[in-house]
Write a structure and sequence with these properties.
The chain is an all-alpha fold. The chain contains two helices and no strands.
């Protein structure tokens, strides 16, 4: 159970934590604005040659979309499998024996 004093202390702690996080974020933004060269961490990302830039962007897109495609593919496979098993049950056909034995 919480008491009014405990609630006030908790609210004060949350407020301090929020202010600290905001202050740290602002400090990071100011530091990056003062030293813009730090933003160019990857030499390939800002290569003036269009072939290299295109290769970097294409690779980034591929690696970003690959996990999404894998999850979507697993979802499609699972949905088809569920519909397939539902179709077996509604037809009255028996599935494989859980023990793996043929009678």
């Amino acid at each position: 159970m919480s008491t009014p004093g405990t609630d006030r202390i908790l609210a004060s702690s949350v407020r301090r934590t929020s202010l600290t996080a905001v202050g740290a974020g602002l400090a990071a933004l100011v530091a990056l604005a003062v030293v813009p060269e730090a933003l160019h961490a990857c030499a390939v990302c800002f290569d003036p040659r269009s072939e290299n830039r295109f290769a970097f962007v294409a690779t980034t897109a591929f690696l970003s979309l690959l996990p999404l495609g894998m999850v979507a593919g697993a979802g499609v496979w699972l949905r088809r499998r569920i519909h397939e098993l539902d179709g077996l049950e509604s037809d009255g056909a028996e599935g494989p024996d859980p023990d793996g034995r043929a009678d």
